[in-house]
Design goal:
Rossmann fold, 441 residues, 13% strand, UDP-glucose 6-dehydrogenase activity, UDP-Glc/GDP-Man_DH_C_sf, alpha/beta, binds nicotinamide-adenine-dinucleotide, 2 domains, 18 helices, six-stranded parallel beta sheet
């Protein structure tokens, strides 16, 4: 089989590479010439564990190619996957200009039957718009080329995207065409050998599924963060509470870790977009509105602890920030809590020196010379007033606290992810603040 994947971001590049891994011929298309050049020259523009190996293997086999030319990519394709960005518009709704732009280009250039698949996260009703955009362009050409549309939301997680794509919990496909169903079933069969299901449904339900899934996950995070803040006020330990509730299978242990709020390119924008979809349909999603406002507040919780510790005077203080990415194992800093915390510290006249195992380059691009960048986690702590842990990279979990005690000016740690053991830090003479736990002072 042959497919085109339009957009070579986290979703497009991972999907295209993983499809190639099953023997499909894949052409990945992007309008960003620099990205395509990099990919042609053997360099991956994003960090994603495991991606480089299968990318190289499939490029060598000739099954994975890159181009800026959509028309060329569509030749002989059985399906074209639209995987371009859907950033939030000013009012929070998903901006569909890239998706519809690609749909129009497909309509202008396609010359045989194919399935036009929307993989980007798009609001209910978008597949109809995609269909209409393709039809309009075909009409302008005065040609009748058959095609079907399908919605195929992506559930991969940055940081484990390759694994998630190769071994998905489920595949969701919305289409009203049997022919499209057959094509999609064939393409996805190799990924379903582990027995996980392919769920066919109507297009509207498929589009809705993606938003409902991300909103549910964001709800779990805001819920536990809210509980964590209350735990602190009443003197409970959220870590015990988390274990206490998580052992109930109806609740489960996943996604109930308190922290500095959710970030990334998906949860914030998808929660906003679903609220907007509801508003447009005359319904108010009260829970999600609260999820969003709790999250805004949570991004400032760690900063609030820092400010209170220093009695409001942060001027001239220096903070070592560990972790910039919105979560471990990615270089993505979109909507990262680190940005809010750093901005707040800088506003108060503090200095920041940051280290991230992978996202430091992205940090330099976004923050420029507003902060310093350390060569490693210990380097960041030299003469810093405190360590501020924002992203729980595995290498931050067991640092040498004896060394930290020597490097830091004060034995002071603010842990935004509750990864350290309060008792251990207490024994070592640290002052330790975490989320939803009694501070060790
Ligand atoms: P991204 O910003 O990393 O990549 C989007 C790519 O599309 C860019 O390389 C851009 O140059 C390209 N592009 C834009 N317009 C184009 C056009 N007309 N033709 C060709 N290429 C074009 O985005 P992403 O993180 O991969 O997300 C893509 C979509 O998938 C979004 O809707 C997102 O919500 C959804 N999604 C993302 C994730 C994730 O973890 N990142 C997970 C599931 C779903």
């Amino acid at each position: 089989m042959k497919i085109s994947v339009v957009g070579t971001g986290y979703v497009g590049l991972v999907s295209g590479t993983c499809f190639a891994e099953t023997g499909v011929n894949v052409t990945c298309v992007d309008i960003n010439e620099r990205k395509v050049e990099m990919l042609k020259e053997g360099h991956i523009p994003i960090y994603e564990p495991g991606l480089e190996d299968i990318y190289k293997k499939n490029v060598e086999k000739g099954r994975l190619v890159f181009t800026t030319n959509l028309e060329e990519s569509l030749k002989d394709s059985d399906a074209v996957f639209i995987a371009v960005g859907t950033p939030p518009d000013e009012d929070g709704s998903a901006d569909l200009k890239y998706v519809i732009g690609v749909a129009r280009e497909i309509g202008r250039t396609m010359d045989h039957y194919m399935v036009v698949v929307t993989k980007s996260t798009v609001p209910v009703g978008t597949s109809v718009k995609v269909k209409n955009a393709v039809l309009e362009e075909l009409e302008k050409r005065g040609e009748k080329v058959p095609f079907d549309v399908a919605s195929n939301p992506e559930f991969l997680k940055e940081g484990s995207a390759v694994d998630d794509f190769l071994k998905p919990d489920r595949i969701v496909i919305g289409t009203d065409s049997e022919k499209a169903q057959k094509v999609m079933k064939r393409l996805y069969k190799p990924f379903l050998l582990n027995g996980h299901p392919i769920l066919f449904m109507d297009i509207t339900s498929s589009e809705m599924t993606k938003y409902a899934a991300n909103s549910m996950l964001a709800t779990k995070i805001s819920f536990i963060n809210d509980i964590a803040n209350l735990c602190e006020i009443v003197g409970a330990d959220v870590d015990s509470v988390r274990k206490g509730i998580g052992s109930d299978v109806r609740i489960g242990t996943k996604f109930i870790y308190p922290g500095t709020g959710y970030g990334g390119s998906c949860f914030p924008k998808d929660v906003q977009a679903l609220i907007r979809t509801a508003d447009e349909n005359g319904y108010s999603l009260e829970i999600l509105k609260a999820v969003e406002s709790v999250n805004y507040r949570q991004k400032e919780v760690l900063y609030g602890k820092i400010k209170r510790h220093f009695n409001g005077d942060l001027k001239g203080k220096k903070f070592a920030v560990w972790g910039l990415a919105f979560k471990p194992k990615t270089d993505d800093m979109r909507e990262a809590p680190s940005l809010v915390i750093i901005d707040k510290l800088l506003e108060e006249g503090a200095k920041v020196i940051a280290y991230d195992p992978v996202a430091s380059e992205e940090g330099k691009r976004i923050l420029g010379d507003k902060i310093e960048f350390a060569k490693d986690e210990y380097d960041a702590c030299i003469d810093s007033d405190a360590l501020v842990l924002v992203t729980e990279w595995p290498e931050f979990r067991l640092p040498n606290f004896r060394v930290l005690r020597k490097l830091l000016k004060n034995n002071l740690i603010f842990d935004g992810r509750n990864i350290y053991d309060p008792e251990e830090l207490n024994e070592m003479g640290f002052t330790y603040y975490a989320i939803g736990r009694k501070p060790i002072i």
